[in-house]
Amino acid sequence: MNDTPVSLHRMTDEDRPTIDRLWQLYAHDLSEFRGTLPDAAGLFRWTRVPAYFDDPDRCGYLVLWGRQPAGFVLMRGLKGDSHVLGEFFVVRAVRRRGVGRDVALELLRRHPGKWEIAFQEENPGAARFWRRIAAEAAGDRWTEERRPVPGKPEIPPDVWLSLTV
Asked: What pLDDT was estimated at residue 36?
């Protein structure tokens, strides 16, 4: 489906400015479903992202399409019994080309074990995508549950998928 190579590059401090800019695109996409607005400077907050550079139990990957940045993946639980997908973003220009699928499956291959993946049901593209990934990666051995978003009772619960790869 895609002739351009897709790869995951483990984030380093040198990638902070790129991830910061990609975060703005990601947060803008999610604002449609969460009703968030940028601050007075026109920027979305990225307060959680620095931990993915500094915390040894977390890591992130820059998604490259060829040599171009095309998204990012943030995960936690490197040292625990279960990995948690924190954030997943692919720029619109390469969506529906198999890039997200390739990235998600490569991430699961790099970090085998138990996984928890959350998404918003009101984001139909993400809902279809993650259910397809769970089925492809784990067959029928995955579960789904709804959990309230901590500290945000005004928004719908997130959907959490649990699987082992």
From this structure: 82
